[in-house]
Amino acid sequence: MLIAQWVVMDNFEEKLVRAVREKRDREGLSIRALSGIVGISFSTLARIERGEGSPDNNSKIRLLEWLGADADKHQLGFDQVAFVHFRAGKGASSGTVQTLLRAAVCLRQHYAEGDASEPGNASADGEIIPMSKEELEQTAEAFRKDLGLKKNDPLDPFHLSVDSVVVERLRTSSCIDAKTKRILAGPACGEWSAMSVPLNADQDSWVVFLNDCHTIERQRVTLLEEYWHILSGHKLTKIAKIAGAFGRTYDSAEEHDAYFLASATLLPRDAVKRMVSEGKGAAHIAATYGTSPELVEYRIKRLGLWREHVGKKVSLSTP
């Protein structure tokens, strides 16, 4: 059975598995230890090493990053690569990632004065430190206070100006070609929301590429989420072409934090609590703050107000 499974694996994957096993053995790492280092689950990594099925591109990218110079020794590597913050579902298709990769190169060339070389990912090896719920709430409240907003004031992210960050909208972009626009606004529209592309190695200058085919309510939370990725110094997603296929990495902890911060900034805690206690519905709260009812419901759940929101009464029965 194992022989048959190895036969269906292509040459790239065979070399990748061999290289990973050699380096892991050389460094005395267990599969579980390597799992913690590269961010691939133990069960998935064990299956990859046994040759049971093909690793997805997320796993390939992470393993190639870990292999470093060993990848070159085994004639493995990326055909193309870009570092971005990428807001989309984990299941974005290879074609969508490929198209966004081309767009990232175009945006760097346009905004980085003709230099389309890939900035280094300075924070790629940094530890992901998720924030507690209360820390996230306090961070959002401090941000609103810095903007001079009162506790109940709405915020429109399109009125925000963030130093050294340019916002480029898909349909009005002057540097994205017509074919790329048609793909990203058509078949791929539902697979991505935005990407933030660093323009230099220090990552202190950015362009946010926003999918303006979505509703304005979704665009608001998307844009604010990208700002929070940048302002929080989050690790960049890597999108790459490997062995003829395109894929990307995905870190759920930092995606969660950025989305939470965006929702908490748009929908302030005290205001949501007050409106729920007054019996205001999600649609009313959403209209007040320019967001979607779905975002309001997410916020209500995160604040522990869902039972009050839906009017579920609880009581103790008499023994």
UniProtKB/TrEMBL annotation:
<comment type="similarity">
    <text>Belongs to the short-chain fatty acyl-CoA assimilation regulator (ScfR) family.</text>
</comment>
<dbReference type="InterPro" id="IPR010982">
    <property type="entry name" value="Lambda_DNA-bd_dom_sf"/>
</dbReference>
<dbReference type="InterPro" id="IPR001387">
    <property type="entry name" value="Cro/C1-type_HTH"/>
</dbReference>
<dbReference type="Pfam" id="PF13560">
    <property type="entry name" value="HTH_31"/>
</dbReference>
<feature type="domain" description="HTH cro/C1-type">
    <location>
        <begin position="20"/>
        <end position="74"/>
    </location>
</feature>
<dbReference type="InterPro" id="IPR052345">
    <property type="entry name" value="Rad_response_metalloprotease"/>
</dbReference>
<dbReference type="InterPro" id="IPR010359">
    <property type="entry name" value="IrrE_HExxH"/>
</dbReference>
<protein>
    <submittedName>
        <fullName>XRE family transcriptional regulator</fullName>
    </submittedName>
</protein>
<dbReference type="Pfam" id="PF06114">
    <property type="entry name" value="Peptidase_M78"/>
</dbReference>
